[in-house]
Every structure is written in C-alpha cells, then in structure tokens.
Amino acid sequence: MMTITDLSVGYGAGDVLHSVDITAASGELTVIPGANGSGKSTLFRTVSGLLRPSSGRVEFDGEEITRSRSAAIVRRGLAHCPEGRHLFPRMSVEKNLTLGAYVGRRDRARVRTLLERSYELFPALRDKSHQSAGSLSGGQQQMVAIGRALMSDPKMLIPGRALDGVGAAGHPAGLRRHRRDQPEKASVCSSRSRTPGRP
Ligand SMILES: Nc1ncnc2c1ncn2[C@@H]1O[C@H](COP(=O)(O)OP(=O)(O)O)[C@@H](O)[C@H]1O
Ligand SMILES: [Mg+2]
Q1: Which UniProt keywords apply (predicted)?
Q2: Does any domain span residue 199?
Q3: How many domains does the chain divide into?
Q4: Ligand 1 nearest atom to the CA of residue 83, by list position
C-alpha cells in the first residue's frame, strides 16, 4: 500500500530524517516507534504532502506521491490526522466531520452514510453532533479529528499519535472498530518509546 524509500527530510537547517525505508501493507497496522523529537510527525507530514523531502521516494497504492500536493494525496486515499487537531471550534461537531468528506465529489446520501459510520465508530459524538467542536473534551475533539479524516473514506489512515496513552479518551476503541469493520484498510500510527530508538 505504501513504500517509503531512502527518504530524507528536514526543516531547512539540515535533515531530521536520514534515508528512511518503511513499508506499510494493506490490512495492517504499522506502528512507528520513537522517542519525542525522533521525527515521527515529520515522517507523517512528509508522506501526506505537508513537507517536501530533500530526497527519496514515497509510493502509495501503486503511484508515486513524493511531491504531490496534500489535497491530491487525500483524493488518492491517504488521510492524515495531524497533531494539534485543527478543528473549527465554533462549528458543530457534525459540520467539522462533514468537511472531511469534501475532497472529491460527494453526494448528500454518501455524506450521510459516512457520518453514520463516524457515529458508529465514536458513539460519544452522536449526542454532541450539534454542539460546537470547541466545547468538547480534548479526547472527544481527537475523535472528531480522526472521524473527519475517515470521512474521506481513505484506503490508509494516519491517525498520528493514536496509540499514546489515551486509552481513557476512547478514540483507540473507535480505531479498533474501524479496523474491524474495514480490515482491508491500512493504518500507520506512532508510539512514543521511553528510550530513544527503542520501541
Ligand atoms: N516546524 C519545525 N521546524 C523546525 N524543526 C522542527 C519542526 N518540527 C519539528 N522539528 C524538529 O524535528 C525533529 C523531529 O520532530 P518531530 O517530527 O515532531 O518528532 P516526533 O513526532 O517524533 O516527536 C525535532 O528535532 C524537532 O525539533
Ligand atoms: Mg510527534
């Protein structure tokens, strides 16, 4: 599903990632371990088109996406839920979710089906669908952010730090349901390790 080859990327002052090779297959959950600052988020920003690599190649679903724009990458089926959530706090939960569906042409019935799926994955959001996203708890806002990424009906989801110590917030349960309902899909998560370089 995704093959990263010899990828190097940084923020102008030298590379943060040096010659990284990773493959992530359909139907699998690929976990990228690493201590704080080791470059997990940088990797996700790069494959989702938010950062330009200095060298290397990213292939997704049989096509090269190394220098594609992020909107084109989402349309190809790779959805990334970035750190910091980036919700619209004054819009309703449902409006925030719905925005995730408009990457290509979508009819209303399709959006309704995708919304219903979001509420099945994250039942806590159903009762709050008309509340402003900003009024929700941090964990619930995280559910909205992941739900919004899934509204593009991606082949691969990158939910960012979904596995890190947030069990009580309930969105890992939603991600487990997603993986159970659509086992052919792929996901790539990160997990913070205590020791640098060790899972
Ligand atoms: N916007 C940025 N500008 C400059 N350096 C950055 C930026 N974001 C992250 N970095 C640097 O890149 C390295 C990797 O960071 P990051 O990818 O956020 O790590 P992780 O997600 O594994 O904690 C760190 O040294 C960090 O300081
Ligand atoms: Mg990070």
Answers
A1: ATP-binding, Nucleotide-binding
A2: no
A3: 1
A4: 21
Half-sphere exposure of 8 (CA within 13 A, CB side): 8
Whole-angstrom distance, CA of residue 107 vs CA of residue 164: 35
**pTM passes above 0.85:** yes
Q: Which position has the token pair 């691969």?
A: 156
143 in a domain, yes or no? Answer: yes
Per-residue confidence (pLDDT) for residue 166, from 0 to 100 = 44
Lowest mean pLDDT among 110-119, 150-159, 187-196: 187-196
Is residue 189 within 8 A of residue 163, CB to CB? The reply is yes
155 lies in some domain: yes
Name the 3-class secondary structure at 54.
coil
- In CATH, what number is assigned to the domain containing residue 55? 3.40.50.300
Cβ of 11 below 6 Å from ligand 1: yes
- Average the pLDDT over 7-22 and give the result: 95
Q: For residues 81 and 150, what is the distance between their CA atoms, to the nearest angstrom?
A: 9
Neighbour order of strands in the sheet with 15-24 = 15-24, 2-10, 55-60, 63-64
Cβ(42)–Cβ(87) below 8 Å: no
Query: Which residues have beta carbons under 5 A from ligand 2 (an ion)?
Result: 40-41
Residue 187 belongs to a domain: yes
Tell me, using a 6 A CB cutoff, whether residue 178 lines ligand 1. no
**What is the domain extent for residue 123?**
2-192
